[in-house]
Design brief:
This protein is mainly α. Helices cover 63% and strands 0% of the residues. The chain has 6 helices and no strands.
Amino acid sequence: MRSYNSKTERFVMSVFSERLRDLRKEKGLTQKELANKVNIGQGGYTHWETGKREPNFKKLILLAKYLDVSTDYLLGLTNIKGERNIMFSFFKKD
């Protein structure tokens, strides 16, 4: 498995932080309001938006679900916001 260097990690966190902030603002939410939605304190949430920390897997999924985007979009792996339904339909039981 290929490892990422610190430059790549900083880029991913920068994209994540920027997209998180922009999506929160598009929804008209404060940091505190979105933090409450994903069950984290405002201080912890602020660290996500500033790129000082990153959410765990469960919190990342909660953010994507609440903001109606895919985790790939949040992480900068795609520029298409509306892929959420594809990702979550994978987990639906028929």
